[in-house]
Amino acid sequence: KRNKDTDMHKTIITLTLLVLIGAGLAATGFSSDIDAEALYKRCASCHGEDGSIEAMGGASPALKGQTSEDLFTKMKGYQDESYGGERAKLMITQVRGLSDEELQALADYMAAF
Questions:
Q1: pTM
Q2: Inter-residue contact 46 to 56 (CB < 8 Å)
Q3: Residue 104 pLDDT > 60, yes or no?
Q4: How many C-beta neighbours within 10 Å does residue 66 have?
Q5: Dist. CA 20–CA 101, nearest whole Å
Q6: Mean of the per-residue pLDDT values for the chain?
Q7: How far is CA 94 from CA 1, 18, 48, 90, in A?
Q8: What angle do CA 54, 56, 58 make, to 5 degrees?
Q9: Which of 7, 21, 61, 85 matches a 20 to 30 Å C-alpha distance to 70?
Q10: 51, 95 in Cβ contact below 8 A?
C-alpha cells in the first residue's frame, strides 16, 4: 500500500506541474500555432528561399548562418527603429505588427537554414 500511495503522490505532483507549465505558457502568449515558414515568405523575395542572398545589392548580410538570438535582436531593432540606419525603412514595414513570439519563431526558423 505504501508504494501505491507514493506512486499516486508522484503522479499528482507531475500532473500539477504540467498544468502549471501549461498555464504559464498560455499566460505568456506562447503559441505553437505560429507558422514561421509562412511568415518567412515576406522575407524570401529579398533574402532567398534559404536565406543565402545578401539583400539590397549586398548591403544586408545573408540570413543563413546567423544565430536565432542575433536575428531576433536585429528584427526587434528594426521594430523600434534602433537598428539598421537608412536601410531600416524597408525592414520596418516587414516586421511591423509582428509579436515577440512571431519574431522569435521567425528567428528560429531562419537560424535553421
A1: 0.71
A2: yes
A3: yes
A4: 17
A5: 20
A6: 85
A7: 62, 36, 15, 7
A8: 45
A9: 21
A10: no
Q: pLDDT tens across 67-100, in order? A: 999 999 999 999 999 998 877 888 999 999 999 9
* Residue range 31-46, pLDDT digits in tens: 568 999 999 999 999 9
- State the residue for C-alpha cell 525603412: 89
SS3 content of the chain, % helix, strand, coil (to 5): 65, 0, 35
Instruction: Round to whole Å and give the CA distance between 82 and 28.
Output: 25
- State the amino acid at position 29 in one-letter form: G
Written as one letter, the residue type at 71 is: L
CA distance 89 to 78: 8
